[in-house]
Design goal:
This protein is of the alpha/beta class. It is built from six helices and six strands. The strands form two sheets. The protein has a four-stranded mixed sheet with strand order 3-2-1-4. A two-stranded parallel sheet has the order 5-6. Helix 4 crosses helix 5 (124-132).
């Protein structure tokens, strides 16, 4: 039987709402979401790690991730580029999520460009769906993906937060 995963969750007040930060015992980021979407985060954890195969408990600054995310919200945008993150999911999803990390701060790309970057230029919708299932938003910067016509589309935390994050990073 696989080892039971032990996740620690901390909460961080940000200018756009409370952020939940979940890390494993080795300090790798496993999930980030907004507290008003905590149920979605738990559903994703259930899907990716299986109900009964992990525990969640409160933890203060697990792996230094809360401090790092605080620095991000105070203007140190580059700090998210170095945070250790661990995901599970299908190979296609992991490919999309890896490509998200390659989007430089202060820039945006379209869903079509995201699909092209993973070598599947015709899989625009599939890349968009995988983008929406990203359990580590902000750090795997799904907010940097916009519509081909430049409009802000789809963000699990709501479009006002997406707009704020992009403005914060200098992309808008």
């Amino acid at each position: 039987m696989p080892e039971l995963l032990d996740f620690r969750i901390d909460r961080l007040a940000t200018p756009v709402g409370e952020l939940l930060i979940a890390a494993d015992r080795d300090g790798r980021l496993r999930a980030i979401d907004w507290s008003d979407y905590e149920s979605r985060m738990r559903r994703l954890l259930d899907r990716y790690y299986c109900v009964g195969r992990y525990t969640i408990s409160a933890g203060r600054d697990p792996g230094g991730l809360t401090k790092a995310m605080s620095a991000y919200f105070k203007g140190d945008i580059a700090v998210i580029d170095t945070l250790p993150a661990e995901t599970t999911g299908t190979p296609f999803q992991r490919g999309v999520w890896q490509a998200l990390r390659g989007i430089k701060s202060g820039t945006t790309i379209s869903y079509a460009e995201l699909a092209r970057r993973i070598g599947s230029p015709r899989a625009v919708r599939a890349a968009g769906l995988a983008n929406g299932q990203n359990p580590i938003g902000i750090v795997l910067p799904c907010h940097r993906v916009i519509g081909s016509n430049g409009t802000l589309t789809g963000y699990g935390g709501g479009l006002p937060r997406k707009k704020w994050l992009l403005e914060h990073e200098g992309a808008l």
